[in-house]
């Protein structure tokens, strides 16, 4: 299920003993899910408190489920602040949460690579939905390095994320049709807020001079953001953090920064910072200084307001970019 292709030079396999260990852990995880039985919708309707138990992978989806579901749901995200979903492995506690959920929501498009098989197994007996499933593939980015797969970071184009939010609404309404009216009202209000933020982001990014409108980060998670808001994007690593940047990657990016006289580069909360700092040092050795313009939230949200919400995360990122680059 991991759709993140790794460049050929980075495909060295781990030792056989490590691979066997990983397979054993995966088989154990799948076996623990085999006890799940049918009738999830029935169970969802019979909860003592009447609330749906919703488990999501990333926090961006959890935020949407809480807003749409309101008082009718209890929502938990498996992947908290600072967690990299590309590398995340489900724990025994996660499997229990998945087992006890009425609804499981995940991003899809290969984002949760190491959890892919577990989610497929779970979908045979439980309500499991990928929130990106109804986004027209013609609107998805298909970078050459992913070898026919799509970039999963769709939440950075708010126009696309509104489709994902509507999928969350649909999933909740299917399990609790009696509350559809409340779910619909919450969804409409949330979509209106996202639409306003979408327009505001376009306006604010446009205030950065075109030559300086370049976003350089640790890994290439912001391509949808770049396309939606007209900002050039460069990542040291590939779209998945499974790939590793080499010396040449660092030097090439440093040369680009010097050539374009870029003022600032950015670190990410869910990705190691040492590699982007290596770029900063490489630029310095070429006779120019580039500063770290701030910390951006990419694959994970924050742990305190306002970055513990999807719209708060976007607002923080945009403010950080505009202040550093303008």
Following the backbone from N to C, one meets helices and strands in this order, namely HHEHEHEHEHHEHEHEHEH
Helix content: 40-55%
Number of strands: 8
Unreliable runs:
1-22, 32-41
Number of helices: 11
| Mean pLDDT across all amino acids | 86
Please, could you describe this protein's structure?
The protein is of the alpha/beta class and 326 residues long. Helix content is 44%, strand content 13%. It contains eleven helices and eight strands. Strands 2-1-3-4 form a four-stranded parallel beta sheet, with helices on both faces. Strands 5-6 form a two-stranded parallel ribbon. A two-stranded parallel sheet has the order 7-8. Helix 3 crosses helix 6 (158-175), helix 3 crosses helix 7 and helix 9 packs across helix 10 (274-285). It is globular. It starts with 15 loop residues before the first helix and ends with a helix. Residues 1-22 and 32-41 have low confidence and may be disordered.
Features:
alpha/beta, globular, two-stranded parallel ribbon, 326 residues
Could you give a quick summary of the protein structure above?
The chain has 326 residues and is α/β, with parallel strands linked by helices. The protein is 44% helix and 13% strand.
């Amino acid at each position: 299920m991991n759709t993140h292709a790794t460049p050929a030079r980075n495909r060295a396999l781990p030792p056989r003993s490590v691979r066997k260990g990983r397979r054993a852990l995966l088989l154990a995880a799948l076996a623990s899910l085999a006890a799940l039985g049918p009738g999830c919708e029935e169970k969802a309707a019979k909860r003592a408190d009447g609330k749906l138990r919703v488990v999501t992978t990333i926090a961006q989806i959890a935020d949407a489920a809480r807003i749409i579901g309101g008082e009718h749901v209890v929502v938990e995200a498996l992947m908290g602040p600072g967690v990299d979903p590309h590398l995340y492995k489900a724990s025994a506690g996660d499997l229990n949460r998945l087992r006890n959920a009425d609804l499981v929501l995940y991003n899809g498009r290969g984002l949760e690579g190491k959890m892919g098989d577990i989610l497929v197994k779970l979908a045979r007996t439980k309500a499991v939905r990928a929130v990106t499933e109804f986004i027209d593939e013609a609107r998805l980015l298909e970078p050459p390095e992913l070898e026919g797969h799509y970039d999963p970071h769709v939440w950075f184009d708010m126009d696309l994320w509104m489709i994902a939010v509507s999928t969350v609404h649909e999933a909740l309404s299917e399990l609790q049709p009696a509350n559809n009216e409340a779910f619909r009202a919450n969804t409409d209000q949330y979509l209106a807020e996202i639409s306003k933020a979408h327009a505001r982001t376009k306006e604010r990014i446009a205030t950065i001079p075109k030559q300086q409108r370049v976003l350089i980060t640790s890994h290439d998670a912001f391509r949808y953001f770049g396309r939606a808001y007209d900002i050039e994007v460069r990542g040291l690593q590939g779209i998945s953090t499974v790939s590793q940047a080499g010396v040449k990657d660092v030097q090439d990016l440093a040369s680009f920064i010097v050539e374009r006289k870029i003022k600032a580069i950015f670190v990410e909360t869910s990705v190691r910072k040492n590699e982007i700092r290596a770029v900063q040092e490489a630029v310095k050795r070429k006779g120019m200084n580039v500063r770290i313009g701030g910390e951006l939230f990419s694959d994970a949200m924050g742990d305190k307001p306002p970055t513990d919400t999807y719209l708060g995360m976007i607002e923080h990122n945009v403010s950080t970019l505009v202040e550093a680059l303008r």
